[in-house]
Design brief:
It is a single chain. By secondary structure, the protein is mainly β. The radius of gyration is 20 Å and the shape is globular. It has two domains: 95 residues, Carboxypeptidase-like, regulatory domain (Immunoglobulin-like), CATH 2.60.40.1120; 88 residues, Immunoglobulin-like (Sandwich), CATH 2.60.40.420. The strands form five sheets. It has a five-stranded mixed sheet with strand order 6-12-11-8-9, with no helix packed on it. A four-stranded antiparallel sheet has the order 13-2-15-16. A three-stranded mixed sheet has the order 14-1-17, with no helix packed on it. Helix content is 11%, strand content 43%. The chain starts with a helix and ends in a 23-residue tail after the last strand. The chain has three helices and 17 strands.
Length: 218
């Protein structure tokens, strides 16, 4: 009976670990806020990582609105199914040649495309064979602790105590990897700030859209 009670107490203690709040701040080299940047924490304990990387019913959406992907950057956990609805009045042809997920969705409109399972971590770059200015990214991460910075370059994450690697990613950031991926210990560090030291790369998403007759794809 004593042994069973001890086991039960141990289980209750493990379940009762409350996640703390981690505040993240990211700024550009000129001091301006850096929004829409992926931030994720990976547990350094392999057992913790494997326990959070199981197949589930997680889903996300990468839409196509006004001849652009929406959102421009999407972050999901591995084993998430992503839908690619087309909210435009003309057809799109979505594809990716990225190692983390290579696929092609033939010309379609509406909700005709089936969701795709993203089961490998990495960066997936998206394009459209019809509209070559359309560009977007899906960052697939091996952790449930992730998000994107807001317009003020801020992010709040609920993360259990432990040792982690905090990583930042955005297609326009050109910092060294050691600056964008650092060790962090919780709850000792409840706030993490990063100030970029290199200017941002050109914003390809702001390139002028090509104008033309797309009636054949309606």
């Amino acid at each position: 009976m004593l042994k069973a009670t001890s086991v039960l107490v141990g289980l209750l203690l493990s379940i009762s670990v409350v996640a703390g709040e981690l505040s993240v701040s990211l700024r550009q080299v000129d001091g301006q806020a850096m929004p829409n940047t992926v931030v994720y924490l990976t547990a350094k304990d392999p057992a913790t990582l494997s326990a959070t990387n199981t197949i589930s019913d997680k889903s996300a959406i990468m839409d196509q609105i006004d001849l652009q992907f929406s959102p421009h950057i999407l972050v999901v956990q591995t084993n998430t199914r992503v839908r690619f609805p087309n909210s435009d009045s003309i057809k799109h042809h979505v594809y990716s040649f990225s190692p983390a997920k290579t696929f092609e969705l033939q010309l379609y409109k509406g909700l005709q495309a089936n969701p795709l399972l993203f089961d490998k971590s990495g960066i997936v770059e998206l394009g459209c064979n019809v509209h070559d200015w359309m560009l977007a990214y899906i960052q697939v991460v091996d952790t449930p602790y992730f998000g994107k910075t807001d317009a003020a370059g801020q992010l709040q994450l609920s993360v259990p105590d432990g040792e982690y690697q905090i990583t930042f990613w955005h297609p326009r950031i050109s910092q060294e990897e050691k600056q964008l991926s650092q060790s962090i210990s919780l709850p000792a560090q409840q706030h993490f700030s990063l100030n970029l030291t290199n200017p941002l790369l050109p914003d390809l998403s702001q390139y002028e859209q090509h104008q033309g007759d797309f009636s054949e794809y309606e």
